[in-house]
Amino acid sequence: MDIGSWIPQVFYDLIGRVAPGAFLLILSAVLLLDPASASFLVVLLKEPHAPLALLLLSALVTAYIVGTLLGAIGFALWHGEWTRKAVAAVQLELPQDDDDDKPESGMAFKYDAVLLHEPAAGARLVKLRAEQHLCRVLAIGVFLLVPLYVWRSWPWRASDVGVLAGLALIAWSAYLFYIHLEIRARRLLANYWFLLGKPTRAPERKSGRSAFSEP
């Protein structure tokens, strides 16, 4: 079993799902829990009634689920993945490389080709994609947290305006960083695609021919 092939996906899950999910859970606890509930959590962590490893695993799974579900909302908003019509729209034939009328044509194919032919380069792309997912999750999570905080803190105090401004800044910063990562990922993908000679099939590991030669 090639354990090394798991590493990019593990990094993606940790960066794109677990990290933002944990951050949002902690932020929600700080902003939404009353002092009594917060003190109960502190006591639970200091004197756990379950093994610490089990508590950590539960927290990890919870953060992963939160990051995954909010990421699904992000994919729907960013890429229009609302219904199964998006699944039916996926073309199964080999995409064309250069189509001036369709700038998005072949993006997924190029991404998968780079991962296949040059795993080290593909790992960098996976990291960028994971960071993009992190930004999506943070933006969606904070956006959903705002009305909950407004409801929880009513009637407002002067300090609540600062909290809402901070939440808006987090969401806006996450969106701006997402745009930067999108630009960087596309440039990196284009660079690798041309440096690898536009591979169109799986590499031939046992023959003397180039793995990236045209068929």
In words, what does this structure look like?
This protein is an all-alpha fold. It is 71% helix and 0% strand. The protein is built from 7 helices and no strands. The two termini are 29 Å apart.
Summarize the SSE layout with pairings.
Blueprint: H1 7-32, H2 35-46, H3 52-79, H4 85-88, H5 107-117, H6 119-152, H7 158-195
Can you give keywords for this protein?
single chain; 215 residues; mainly alpha; globular; 71% helix; 7 helices; 0% strand
Mean pLDDT: 78
Domain count: the total is 1
Number of strands: 0
Distance between the termini: 29 Å
Structure annotation, total helices: 7
Largest β sheet strand count, sense and barrel closure: none
- Which class best fits the helix and strand makeup? mainly alpha
Query: Fraction of residues in helices?
Result: over 70%
Question: How would you sum up this structure in a few lines?
Answer:
This protein is an all-alpha fold. The protein has helices at 7-32, 35-46, 52-79, 85-88, 107-117, 119-152, 158-195.
